[in-house]
Amino acid sequence: MQISPNTPPLLSATGLAFHRNDEPVFGPLDLQVDAGEALLVQGDNGAGKTTLLRVLAGLLRAGSGTIQIDGRPAGHRERAQFVAYLSHLPGLKPDLDTLENLNFLCGLHGRRARQMPGNALAIVGLAGHEGTLVRQLSAGQKRRLALARIWLSPAPLWLLDEPYANLDLDGINLVNRMITAHLRGGGAALVTTHGAYAAPPVRTRLVTLSAAGQPSQAAAGDLA
Fold this sequence. Notes:
disordered C terminus
């Protein structure tokens, strides 16, 4: 996919930092991710990976720094239009079935063109579970359903917090196929992980978050 040199990155941050109780969690950090590429965020437990994604998603307020989405300051409208967030929690209603959950979420957030909830269930390996209540699913199946929600989202920027958690090897390959297809369509993804063993095989930048109070490192390049 060709990107015009005048096209702003889908997401950029400058001098971004977060403190909790006056203690540094991460930053200051500069990063960007363009359409058609992924940003892999690595770091040990407690390095601030989840906190970084929550700041980028607008769920936490940054202590300092600026965030831009598609070249504009990141506000509620920009995040609603451009960002789909996958957290550690599945964000699903346990007493609705899988199809009801996806229909409900599509009603809230919209739906990717030419994609339907039933097809998304098949893509993530949950065909035949359309009438299964979420509370009856295994942890891995709930993760797959959350991935179906992300797949249906029309947002071009995916923020994926440990998307490989609770998944077997087939599930890990599913995540990588989804990210690859999303990037080929002009999207971008931020992916947190403990290690590169599950890095998606796509054009990738790398950010390593160090322990609290230590500088973080960002490097551009291809891991694939």
